[in-house]
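User: Reviewer 2 asked us to show a designed sequence for the structure in our supplementary figure. I'm pasting the structure tokens here. Could you produce the per-position amino acids so we can include them in the response letter?
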């Protein structure tokens, strides 16, 4: 195991070290992972403390959780970064092992509740970068009411060395990062549906 166990108080003390920077930049505390909601109870307590101290909060999530769990933290989250891999449920199951139905329902619920949400799409060649999927994704996001921003996260190969060191088989060893031209086409299509689209973020 890598890492260490910490208390809510220890995390808050670490976050507060950058309070001056938050005040100057408008930033705050971001919680990602992995999936931060896998430690739901701990995350909730940290988020509550942040809100009591007027620290802006961001949760980066796959959205694969119960509606009740998402609702329970929602009041303490200023911004959700919501991962959206594909609208194709069969393809989502094939590549991730789980259905995307609850994920899409959770995303729509957050949008309908008026929460600030940025959709983040990992662009993976051969998986979700074809024109039909991109067009459908743009149309879906545009139907979400207050969601007006998409961040594209291009697939990268920085994890290849980790697989080698761990002696694990990398099922995506033949997948290459999308080209600048390919990303430009995707951005152009998505901007037909959503006003703000950027690469990275």
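Assistant: Here is a per-position design you can include in the supplement:
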């Amino acid at each position: 195991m890598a890492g260490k166990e910490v208390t809510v108080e220890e995390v808050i003390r670490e976050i507060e070290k950058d309070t001056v920077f938050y005040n100057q930049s408008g930033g705050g505390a971001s919680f990602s992972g992995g999936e931060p909601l896998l430690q739901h109870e701990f995350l909730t307590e940290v988020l509550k403390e942040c809100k009591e101290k007027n620290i802006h909060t961001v949760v980066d999530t796959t959205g694969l959780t119960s509606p009740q769990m998402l609702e329970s933290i929602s009041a303490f989250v200023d911004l959700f970064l919501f991962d959206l891999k594909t609208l194709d449920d069969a393809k989502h199951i094939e590549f991730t092992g789980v259905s995307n139905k609850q994920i899409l329902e959770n995303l729509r619920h957050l949008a309908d509740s008026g929460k600030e949400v940025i959709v983040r799409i990992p662009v993976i060649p051969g998986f979700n970068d074809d024109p039909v999927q991109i067009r459908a994704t743009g149309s879906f996001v545009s139907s979400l009411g207050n969601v007006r921003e998409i961040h594209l996260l291009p697939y990268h190969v920085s994890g290849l060395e980790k697989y080698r060191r761990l002696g694990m088989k990398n099922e995506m060893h033949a997948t290459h990062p999308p080209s600048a031209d390919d990303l430009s086409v995707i951005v152009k299509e998505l901007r037909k549906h959503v006003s703000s689209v950027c690469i990275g973020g």
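For the response letter, you might also mention the following. Residues 84-201 form a domain with the TIM Barrel fold (CATH 3.20.20.70). The radius of gyration is 18 Å.
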